[in-house]
Amino acid sequence: MDQTMEKKKVMLSGIQPSGDLHLGNYLGAVRNWVKIADDYDCFYFMADLHSITVRQNPADLRRRSVSQLAQYIACGLDPQKNTLFIQSHVHEHAELGWILNCYTMFGELSRMTQFKDKSAKHAENINGGLFTYPALMAADILLYQSDFIPVGEDQKQHCELTRDIAVRFNNLYGPTFTVPEPYIPQVGARIMSLSNPSSKMSKSDPAGCVFIMDPPEEIARKFKRAITDSDTERCVRYDPENKPGVSNLMSIYSSVTGLSFDEIERDFEGKGYGVFKPAVGDAVVEALRPIREDAARYLADKEYLRSVYADGAARASAIARKTLRKVYKRIGLVEKPF
Ligand code: ATP
Ligand code: LTN
User: Fold this and answer.
1) Of 39, 76, 216, 235, which has fewest CB within 10 angstroms of its CB?
2) What's the pLDDT at 3?
3) Which of 12, 21, 25 to probe ligand 1 with, by most ligand atoms within 8 A of CB?
4) What is the pTM of this model?
């Protein structure tokens, strides 16, 4: 490497392979990762250890972890430019996760909205992992001395807790971890459910969720059925307070076409929701078509995918190992003699 070149800042993010990628994941996260590949040293992983905080079918989990990688690549993440790996292949995540559990407070974990939401949704399985999830997420981030965490708005609270844990550790033992910052996009940070615009689009609500692997007819159908607002005005105008349904559709349309809200309002003046909804559907179908087709091609080539995640894990481990060794030393664990 050219020694005169400045070291690139580190970006890291993960998505749980608990379902296929959806439009919220794509517009709020993955699409933005693609844009920054040349400017940062980027690490993206399938957060399989996180996904088992909710009960998973083992065969589905295995299939989805690999399928998510195919979808990452199809979205434009180049494995040469980005380190792509499966979280459980880099055992340092689980090890540092345990340690950071011991530097994360019960009160802090109790305040996490994702924990509150998921424990309400899975009342029969409020396990310890669901509660201590943010300590593992902090480990994911801090192992790589990450500078930025590109995520959607909903992950901001976890990123802030990671910062608090890093600062706490650094204050106790001296500089060990880079203190990271969340990196949240302006448009697309929070795509809402098509069936309920007051909650975020999420794979756990399939009716309101558009998956990137959905066939075009399915996508069109979901947009035609999207809930719009019960106001009498029925015009296409951006007003998230009073018109959350149509404003969400406008955010999606703007994200996939690049048009501003003003331009969209002008183009659909006097046209009403009945014209706007299918237009958004068509635009999304066209934006997702090449991704779906590429993902299907990568999925058919298991050997290629295997080589990508093997190479990714090797690159990631080399870095993670160094940080973990430093942490073990700092907290007083005896150095391994072999
Ligand atoms: P779950 O239903 O299990 O909560 P999810 O569908 O919300 O999952 P995650 O795996 O939690 O998806 O999210 C992966 C990434 O996508 C994160 O960076 C998250 O911020 C982003 N993201 C998820 N949902 C949305 C959304 N509706 N709008 C924008 N970004 C989103
Ligand atoms: N908690 C995230 C997934 C996740 C993550 C991470 C994101 C796990 N580890 C590290 C960024 C950095 C979620 O539920 N979307």
Assistant:
1) 39
2) 52
3) 25
4) 0.92
